[in-house]
Amino acid sequence: MKSFEKKLPLAVLILTGLMVTLNSRAATLWTGPNTNFVNSASSDPTQPTNQDRLTADVWITRGSSNGIYNAAIEEAFTHFFSPQNTAWSDGALSNYSSLSYVDWDTWARLQHGGPPNTIDVSAVVHLVSEDIYLSVTFTGWGGFGGGFSWTRSTPQVGPIVAIDSPTNGASFTAPANVTITASANDSKGSVTNVSFIDGATFLGQTDSTPYTLTATFTAGSHALTAVATDSSGLSATSSVVNISVGVANPTLSVTITNPPDNSVLGNTDNINIGADVTDTNSVVTNVSFFDGAVLLRSVAASPFQFTTGPFTFALGMHTLTAVASDNIGGSATSDPADA
Question: What's residue 247's pLDDT?
Fold first, then answer.
């Protein structure tokens, strides 16, 4: 068993973990394949085979009674303290940052009425000092005879990659020259290449940071992914980022007809806002009215107008614009009208 000169209280370890997160690195999520661990009843908790050694500092085991503890730095279970260097919460690993964590005893006994009731409960465990999060589900509890079993996630092997730009749902007008930027890293190696793909179409690749590529897209929907490869030959694919590219339509135009530019209005007035739209080769399907970047209303049929009641404008200047869309994917934005 490893020896430590001093056993730190959980509160100190949590604070240390938070400082590490804030000051030096981001949290690590174990999203690799699940593995099963069984600690048999009446087994010797000092033996490595009866310890689930998550990291060099966290070895989870259980004696013939009471709860689980961290054999790397504890000799036995202590209520509302063990396993040291861990914190627990119900939930999914994907929501790790928004969960509320407590010690195992509080989680198992106070929140669930006892360890047997935690079987099949999806939990997230925080290895505090290393700022690691993993998913854990107990599959068995041996009662007073000792022993337990669980399934848990493992460290991801290989690179991690994500598309940072453009954002999912972004829209452009054809022909669209779009810069795609991805982030990629590998905790056990180095990323050697990042490729960019549109659906099944290869767009290009780069072997240097920042991982960026500019591609030209035609009108339609495009499903973008990035594939990172590391020095061991392992690869990973990012989540899909969907973008849409609309058809340029020079015959579509929109003008705000009311209120006139530079109008002076009362902040409690109900204001009629309207637009005139022309489109000679397609059908207008929607006009959206904006106050700066704030959407006020979308109108799907002529006349393209509405009254601001029951809401009112705050005191100050307001810049109104209208954005018209048609059935061939074209769009046009009006000149602004200040009020």
Answer: 73
CA 4 to chain centre: 37
Q: Rounded to whole angstroms, how far apart are CA atoms 211 and 227?
A: 11
Tell me how far apart the alpha carbons of residues 179 and 215 are, in angstroms, rounded to a whole number: 6
pLDDT mean over 282-310? 87
Q: Which helix (DSSP H) or strand (DSSP E) does residue 21 occupy?
A: helix 10-23
Residues 13-66 pLDDT 10s: 333 333 333 333 468 889 888 999 999 988 899 999 999 999 999 999 999 989
Report CA dihedral (151, 91, 72, 5) to the nearest 10 degrees.
180
CA distances in angstroms from 228 to 16, 152, 160, 179, 189, listed in the order given: 32, 26, 7, 17, 12
Helix (H, G, I), strand (E, B) or coil at 278: strand
**In which residue are the tokens 């991801």 written?**
156
d(CA 151, CA 134): 11
Task: Specify the pTM.
Answer: 0.49
Three-class SS of residue 116? Answer: helix
Question: Tens digit of pLDDT for each residue in 313-330?
Answer: 777 888 899 988 888 777
The dihedral sign for the CA sequence 256, 259, 260, 261: negative
End-to-end C-alpha distance for the chain, whole angstroms: 74
Q: Please state, in angstroms and rounded to a whole number, the distance separating the CA atoms of residues 337 and 327.
A: 26
- Please give the torsion angle defined by the CA atoms of residues 25, 26, 27 and 33, in that order, rounded to the nearest 10 degrees: -110
Query: What domains can be seen in the chain, in order of their start residue?
Result: 10-154 (no CATH), 160-246 (2.60.40.10), 253-338 (2.60.40.10)
